[in-house]
């Protein structure tokens, strides 16, 4: 039994696999937007090809910059229009904490729904993809920077409280040779499970490798996620 399995009742016809993705769409993500769009479609197809996940996954997809947009709220794959998985444009600043708190709230709502229906489920998997760090817009007042950083700290505390027994959290920090890169030190405030990814830095895994890992963790839900991460590294 995986350490994130829920040894709960087995009433439901299919054990549900809740998978959440929180994806940065701030302005610095322009050069990886097409890569992410193709990778998200590949993830959808990867999950559809597995008998376990085709009817078992409930997918959450959140795009964020200064605002948080819930594109897909824990829907089964057969109800999802692929256009809703597409990043149409990137813009704005990076309020990571607000997006994570929204995701955590939706995760709890989904778990409550499962329990109300006596539905068996795997512990939720939540993945963050970002190339930056919590930050306000250029020229923003100091209180706005403080608000965004305080929200990030609250999200980090909540993830630490839940991670391991009530949630599995992993983040991907996009790195670049030049320009904006994810602040790995700040990502480690959320969790030790941080994977550095890139499209052009030798020795780092690719962004699409990380998104394939998301699919693999759902398909092999009985396997401890740290084992799957070691395989990726």
Using brief descriptors, characterize the structure shown.
alpha/beta; 6 strands; six-stranded mixed β-sheet; single chain; globular
Helix percent reads: 25-40%
Q: Strand count, sense and closure of the main sheet?
A: 6 strands, mixed
Choose one word for the global shape: globular
Class from secondary-structure proportions = alpha/beta
Strand order of the largest sheet: 3-2-1-4-5-6
Q: N-to-C SSE series? A: EHHEEHEHEHEHH
Contiguous helical run count: 7
Uncertain stretches of 5 or more adjacent residues:
7-12
End-to-end distance = 23 Å
Descriptive overview:
The protein is of the alpha/beta class and 233 residues long. The chain contains seven helices and six strands; from the N terminus they run E-H-H-E-E-H-E-H-E-H-E-H-H. It has helices spanning 33-49, 51-54, 96-116, 142-162, 184-187, 207-219, 225-232, and strands at residues 17-24, 57-64, 68-76, 125-130, 168-174, 194-197. It has a six-stranded mixed β-sheet with strand order 3-2-1-4-5-6, sandwiched between helices. Strand 2 and strand 3 form a beta hairpin. Helix 1 (33-49) packs parallel to helix 6 and helix 6 packs antiparallel against helix 7.
